[in-house]
């Protein structure tokens, strides 16, 4: 079974890596479309990614140890099978199965060719289930069958070409039986899909909830956090570019970072009536809860962010003070370094607990900088 479990484990690891890379873009897309994070759609999408990678790895892995796969094969090796239902012949060959004698039919389960055909039948069945969800209507079964056929054709061509020339000979054959079994399996999955999707909210239910939240002008805390994450990403990306060009470090790097924060969290909101670049992406803005000037409130929010950043930087700088071992203050430096580490850890834990509390509250509590600045999020223009 390792021939199957190993590719699935590889797909699992790849999916985890891709999850970290794609999670924030997916959240942004979901929030922009629905105005809130649809847990059901997120689960469906990530399960689809995992399935698709697993199927691809099952088809392609394990790779040969050398790119010169021709040297591992006889010169007369045939890399294709164009005879339909050859798998039936392989199952019956030397199996002792007599079609007119039902007592011999159990021998089918002892034939390797049966399991290979059965796994090929199951391989794209989940794909049919997902197609039913994405296409939304069972009347599109012909479209689902065509997409399934094209996917399995892609698999077969990829194998036949040695992954498009990476290997000089095919290390698995192009099999017309695989085309049939994969496509029929996907079609069966398409018709069985309603049993699975009955457990999840429909597209209409998700859209209805999105419309209700838009009507009530609800901006979820996670949307605000995503906007903050986008702003921080932009600032650090610019900081990386400047650092790569100038090669600066130390106090100058810190000053540039502070300047970027002031630009993104102070200047930009004043030019856009309360919205940072991240808020623009997430389609909401900040307004004063008590009618005060948005200019003053935005700068208060910027100051609240800078206080935490500067506090963390000061603690880190103190903790990095290095003294010679012969110095009479060396023991004091060790104590200060330890205290700085603890202080930074406590600061991070406080922020983490605060963020979790805000998320769990569902909007009843605000992030500390929004509360301090007297700002509330709105989707109204």
Would you mind describing this structure in some detail?
The longest helix has 33 residues. Helix 3 packs antiparallel against helix 4. It contains 15 helices and four strands. The chain folds into three domains: 62 residues, no CATH class; 140 residues, no CATH class; 162 residues, no CATH class. It has 381 residues and is mainly α. Helices cover 69% and strands 3% of the residues. The strands form two sheets. A two-stranded parallel ribbon has the order 1-2.
List keywords for this structure.
single chain, 381 residues, mainly alpha, 3 domains, two-stranded antiparallel sheet, 3% strand
Mean pLDDT: 85
Helix fraction, binned, reads 55-70%
Q: Per DSSP, what share of the residues sits in E-state strands of 2 or more residues?
A: under 5%
Shape: elongated
The total beta strand count reads 4
What is the rounded distance between the termini?
A: 58 Å
> Count of helices?
15
Task: Work out the count of structural domains.
Answer: 3
Q: Output the radius of gyration.
A: 30 Å
The helix/strand series, from N terminus to C terminus, equals: HHEHHHHHEHHHHHEHHHE
Task: State the strand order across the main sheet.
Answer: 1-2
Secondary structural class: mainly alpha
Q: Main beta sheet: strand number and arrangement? A: 2 strands, parallel
- The poorly predicted ranges are none
